[in-house]
Amino acid sequence: MHQLQHNNCSAVRPITPAPQPVETGHPAFGRFLRFWRGVFNLSQEDLAERLDCSPRHVSRLENGSSRPSETMVRQICSALVLGRRDSNHLMVAAGFAPEEEFLDFHAPEYRWLRKAMAMNLRALEPYPTALLDSAGNLAMVNHSWVRFFLNAVPRARLDQVGNYYEFLFHRDGVGGHVSNWENALSVILMTITQHALFTNKEEDLEVMRRLEKHPYLPGDWKRRAAAMEPMTSFRLQITIDGKLERFFSVMSTVGALGPSEYNSEPNYSIHTLYPENDDFDLEGLAEREVDHPLLAY
Hints:
By secondary structure, this protein is an alpha+beta fold. Helix content is 39%, strand content 11%.
């Protein structure tokens, strides 16, 4: 990897001045490249020397008349000694998928993240809430989540839930409690599929393959999902204390800031269930003592 340094340019060589504030008329990659030259006070000639290419090619990359290859983008990241976040933003700007290293949620260095997520889930009581990774695997749940689903499945079954989406797909899970079940699952699987195709991670692809083989999946799920916009939520209906209650699920994301936040580690989401009936008292669920392997606190 080249170390970033300032060049002393020869007086006989014409020098392109370091860039002024970023122009907005160029394609995203060109704006990013011009921005980073400005950060490090590099001329087009300086950067071209590091890339072993012509200054004219750098100019064409910036004005959009030339599109960079994935290899070229990586060379630019290396020449500028960009970190993972900034390299991924440059990759996205050029039209390529970012690369992310696996984040071990339970590693010692992410104790701060686990603590923050536990506090978040606790603050959302008495609303049932779960923390999911990008593949839909459960990472944490709060007490209300356990109490809520004990109305639908036995404790032993709930303790074994690993992937939330598979839990929703199974009729012996909560699939039978999802309103408009076929359409909801079609859209969920379409989201999972497109995410897996984008990341190309084996874990994501494996979840996609398992759900595609599910016996209760509608045969026309792809066309169903293509005909619908992504849903901000899906609805569950569960009998609590002898009365059918309806809830809608709302998701919020937990991830890195920036253009590639949707595909950057940490890539987690918080799923919370809210009652449709404003008069329904969720505090009643809080009176039950519960236990679960993934309780956050």
